Amino acid sequence: SVGVPLIVLVLVFGALFFTVYHRFLNIRGFKHAIDVTRGKYDNPDDPGEISHFQALTSALSATVGLGNIAGVAVAVATGGPGAVFWMIVLGLFGMSSKFHECTLAQIYRKVDDDGTIHGGPMYYLEMGLKERGLPAFVAKAFGVVFALFCIGGSFGGGNMFQANQAWGITKTTLESRFGMTFDGNESFVFGIMMAVLVGLVIIGGIKRIGSVTEKIIPIMCGVYVIASLVILGANAAELPAAFGLIFS
């Protein structure tokens, strides 16, 4: 027998529910999503601190690499080729969950007098549940608990994993290509350097994050797509067998 973690069931049934609830908007609204991203509806007078494109690149900066490279590799290594099929299916339906989440973040957000905007699940949980009739302290508790869990998750999924992977590939490359050796202390120095570079970006707030990601992320995504196509092309003869393994 194979156990299924509760979080997977929550994500699966949640994604299916929102897909039906929004009448398959993940498929119907695909062109509209592209139009929004490329700036068709941009209005400089709209409220907000960054553009649609900057918002996209900020989101991609946290997913390209962790999610679709390292995460996929871990999933295939532990679950076998069939994991690819389920990631594709859940990714497709998960678009509906993400649409719902982002829509709530737009509806329930706080705007300061200076134009600074605060939003996200911790805000719409508090504001939305309070609007639905829950006592204020209960609604507030939902937001606080989410924020605390988000901080905890960021250490593992948002910081240590990337730093570990970055140092691992750097160390392997330097050892194999240049014959360098390490005594173990270098990883600490590497981590400090990464923390300083990241700090220079995020301490400036969402405007600086958006400004940096809109320049770096398109290049990163381009390299990722080209590298993937090169690998697929170099192993074209193996693709039919690979697809067979995924579906069987």
Q: Could you give the topology of this structure?
A:
Layout lengths: L5 H16 L3 H4 L1 H8 L14 H9 L5 H14 L2 H26 L2 E2 L5 E2 L2 H11 L4 H43 L7 H17 L2 H30 L4 H9 L1
Antiparallel strand pairs: 1-2
Helix pairs in contact: 1-6, 4-10, 5-6, 6-7, 7-8
Core attributes:
single chain, 248 residues, mainly alpha
Question: Quick recap of the structure?
Answer:
The chain has 248 residues and is mainly alpha-helical. Helix content is 75%, strand content 2%.
SSE string, helices as H and strands as E: HHHHHHEEHHHHH
The percent range for helix content is over 70%
**Portion in beta strands:** under 5%
Strands, count: 2
Report the radius of gyration as a whole number of Å: 21 Å
Distance between the termini: 18 Å
- Count of alpha/pi helices: 11
| Strand order in space, largest sheet | 1-2
Structural notes for this entry:
- The structure is a single chain.
- This protein has helices at 6-21, 25-28, 30-37, 52-60, 66-79, 82-107, 121-131, 136-178, 186-202, 205-234, 239-247; strands at residues 110-111, 117-118.
- The chain has 248 residues and is mostly helical.
- A two-stranded antiparallel sheet has the order 1-2.
- The protein is globular and about 60 Å long.
- A hairpin with a 5-residue loop joins β1 (110-111) and β2.
